[in-house]
Write a structure and sequence with these properties.
The protein is mainly alpha-helical. It has 2 helices and no strands. It is 74% helix and 0% strand. This is MICOS complex subunit Mic10.
Amino acid sequence: MAEENKQQEQPVVASEYNLDAKWDACLDLGVRRFAYFSLIGGFAGLLLFRSPVTRWASTAFGAGTGIGSAYTECAQKFGGYPGKSTASISETPITKDGDD
């Protein structure tokens, strides 16, 4: 009987670690993408723009893009984001009711 209780507890512990691993991976992904995309946006701002305001805007755009892409990927890992939707197309043609 004690062996049955241990076997029942193991999947709960495994899923808890799996959830913690997902959170760790998402946090790591978010920080990395925020930093990398901010640097890319800042570098692009230095190359393309003269005004400090537009350079900061380029950096902010890069940071937002990085956070957005990290959020999308993390949402897919947790199963909350459906991803690309597949539209079902009917093979039967649409007909008009009326005289043409």
